[in-house]
Each structure stands twice: as structure tokens, then as C-alpha cells.
Specification:
Keywords: Membrane, Transmembrane, Transmembrane helix. Pfam families: DUF983 (PF06170). This is DUF983 domain-containing protein. The chain is an all-alpha fold. The protein is built from 3 helices and no strands. The model has no long low-confidence stretch (mean pLDDT 92).
């Protein structure tokens, strides 16, 4: 059996080591160990990286769409609120988990670890 690509497994919320076990216990809580292969996932920490990428990606998409809508149609402000607040929420929540999985898988691929003082 061939090993899965870690980035694809991470984006799907699967263990980057085997591609079978769950990477997350809840919505964003990383599981302590992989159910399938026993790989220690507790040492993985993505920090603020996923949130930064979500802000940049969702912010660009929503800001561009809102500006395009404003220039093309000039709707009242309430239309912008009705359209873009839910779109922002859906995009942010939809992107957060896959991006966190990608960053955790990138750590696995590159064998990243915490920096120490003697490094």
C-alpha cells in the first residue's frame, strides 16, 4: 500500500502519516494520536498560521466581490450586509479546518519541531 501525500491527507482532515486516521478530535482540536497508525499528533502546533491565511483569502474574495457589486449595481448598504456578512462567515469557517490541516501536514512533511535555545 502506498503512502498518501501528506498535504492532501491534511487538507482532508486525515493523519498526514497514514492518511487513514482522523487529524481532528473536534472542529479544530488536534487529536492526540492517530486512530489508525498511532502517530503522535500532540506535538503538532499550527499557531496563528491558518487564521492569517483565512483572513487573507476570505478578505480578498469578499472585498473584491463587495467592491464589484458596489461599482456594478450600487445597492443600498443593507444589501451589502445581507450578502457579505454571511459570505464572510461561511468562507472563514469553511477554510479554517482545511488550512489548519494543510499547515499541520506541512510540518509533518518538513519534520518541523519547536526551536530550542541550543539550536
Amino acid at each position: 500500500m502506498s503512502r498518501p501525500h501528506p498535504l492532501l491527507a491534511g487538507a482532508a482532515g486525515r493523519c498526514p502519516n497514514c492518511g487513514e486516521g482522523r487529524l481532528f478530535e473536534g472542529f479544530l482540536a488536534v487529536a492526540p494520536r492517530c486512530d489508525a497508525c498511532g502517530y503522535d499528533l500532540a506535538k503538532a502546533d499550527s499557531g496563528d498560521g491558518p487564521a492569517v491565511f483565512v483572513i487573507l483569502i476570505a478578505g480578498f474574495v469578499v472585498a473584491f466581490a463587495a467592491l464589484f457589486t458596489e461599482v456594478a449595481y450600487s445597492p443600498p448598504v443593507w444589501v451589502h450586509l445581507v450578502l457579505w456578512l454571511p459570505a464572510t462567515l461561511v468562507l472563514c469557517l469553511g477554510l479554517l479546518r482545511p488550512l489548519k490541516g494543510l499547515l499541520l501536514a506541512a510540518q509533518f512533511m518538513n519534520k518541523a519541531s519547536e526551536a530550542r535555545r541550543d539550536d
